[in-house]
Amino acid sequence: MSAPLEHYGLIGDTTTVGLVSRYGSLDWLCLPRIDSDACFAKLLGRDDHGYWTIRPATAIRTLERRYRRDTLVLETEFACESGRVRLIDFMPPCVAPRDATRLVDEAHDVIRIVEGIEGEVPMHSDLRARFGYGRVIPWIQCAGGRATLTSGPAALAFSSPASLDPDWNAARLETNFAVRAGQRLPFTLTFYPSHELAPAHPVDAEQELARTERHWREWAGRCRYQGRWHDAVVRSLLTLKALTYAPTGGIVAAPTTSLPEELGGVRNWDYRYCWLRDSTLTLDALMRGGYLEEAQAWRDWLMRAVAGAPAQLQIMYGVAGEHRLTEIELPWLPGYEESRPVRIGNGAYDQFQLDVYGEVLNTLYDAHAHGLPDLPHTWDPIVEIVDFVEKSWQRPDEGIWEIRGGKQLHFTHSKLMTWVAVDRAVRMIEEFGVGGQHRLEKRLQRWRALREEIRLDLLDRGFNTRVGAFTQSYGSDALDASVLLIPHMGFLAADDPRMLSTVAAIEKGLTRDGLVLRYATETGVDGLPGDEATFLICSFWLADNYAMVGRLDEAEALLDRLVSLRNDIGLLAEEYSPELRRQLGNFPQAFSHIGLVNTAHIIEARRAGKEVSLPSAA
Ligand SMILES: OC[C@H]1O[C@H](O[C@H]2O[C@H](CO)[C@@H](O)[C@H](O)[C@H]2O)[C@H](O)[C@@H](O)[C@@H]1O
Questions:
Q1: Does a structural domain hold residue 429?
Q2: Nearest CA, atom 17, ligand 1
Q3: How many domains does the chain divide into?
Q4: First to last CA, the chain
Q5: Boundaries of each GH15-like domain copy (predicted)?
Q6: C-alpha atoms less than 13 angstroms from C-alpha of 144 in its C-beta half-sphere
């Protein structure tokens, strides 16, 4: 069985990610891409679904771990009776060589250095790779301290400083060794396509460690945020950066699949894709942090993904812009803490979610406002998107939460975002003068009128006077945390009486132990059995609303609490159960880290007396 998800640390090279448990077990790794088949899938199963452990072969007295400052280099220190040992885990980042026109995305190494600190500690390395998400036993060839593990198109070259002892029956490579104070013993695992020759030499672990540390420190050093939550913000930004796919600029929602929203439940989804919503919010957090290069790479990714036919815009894509993300179940995996089914692919990819048009245009507006140069022809898809919104905004949809109960409702948040789509297009023309060459005067008149029509409709049908709140959908009494975004989007000021009473209603009716649920599952709106925990980004949105109306002490207290829910190395999953005191859902989740970065910025800005949202519309 896997460890609890909070026990995992993330290492990554900006093409893929590995999760290492507190006890040195690499239990999740997909190669060569973040959405490729896993070769270690114990996270969702058992030992025989694949892992690679390095740990003391003797009783551990204490254990401590941390990231090296401002990096994704993870250190775990074990104290044992005979001495102390440090395990240093990392993946050298995928970067462009100076003279290359493309990124090196073929090389993927996991490097684990065992460093003796005190005395002598007996150690054990145990590698059991299972390709195809834990199902396929590889063909192993082994000599001395080197081995290759091959399965179909994929192969791994494994190098150990101590001679390997293959267990052919269990298709497992073990080695026992001892590490003395001052010794540093490198293990490397390198992916290569199986039709090519295995690399002639293992990578130079020490050289790669130095390069990796330099790379991340330089990156983290560019963070513009200097406020009270600096360390937490930098850790979140590093985590978000680890969720980017450097060769294309794509950003995934999380590096895992099927970590459950309810233990033992069926709410288990694959998040290794680029949602326009999650990616645009990630980008927003990166831009706030000062990372405009990533913003530009994602904006360009977005244009490639959507520009062909904006009316066919999908709500999510693969990291290279793939369209088909068919959802299937993997019945051989028992699931994290028996939460079945394990799914790959995501059936929501062909849903109709009206909010994405607003998210895309909001990002293009922000990117322009941050000074990113527009791509040639950016305006063509914008015109088509707004024209599409004009035709479609009155249709029901599946909404921000991707309900699986069908398109029946007019979600308030969806309508809000159609207003955002039209508003940002209008403002890009009015404020930046973009699109001038398209002779948009006629459209501009029409779009202004459309924006007003949506605004009046939303105020009239989205605000429920019985409940005293903007509710989940038109005509419904149900609460929904997504309406907390109304002030962020500049639709109404946070201190508008309708927002104040909405916040009060959510505090009263949609929280557990002070943390916010996205909606009440009991209404059956999502078409799924079971329940879920509090959804972390929604609590950040509540803190933002507090900050925006000057309830700064409450905002800070809530942010401090949310920061305290991170695991020991600063990582957050999608949800948190106050009853179980456990994180739940995919891990680490971009949404939650986005929330942390944005809320820290908003509070700091408000403390400094600055405005944080766009001007109010109503
Ligand atoms: O709750 C049902 C849905 O859950 C997932 O969607 C959630 O995660 C997405 C990625 O972070 C996010 O964009 C969305 O707003 C969340 O509701 C799942 O991906 C869906 O397939 C599922 O229907």
A1: no
A2: 401
A3: 2
A4: 54
A5: 230-600
A6: 4
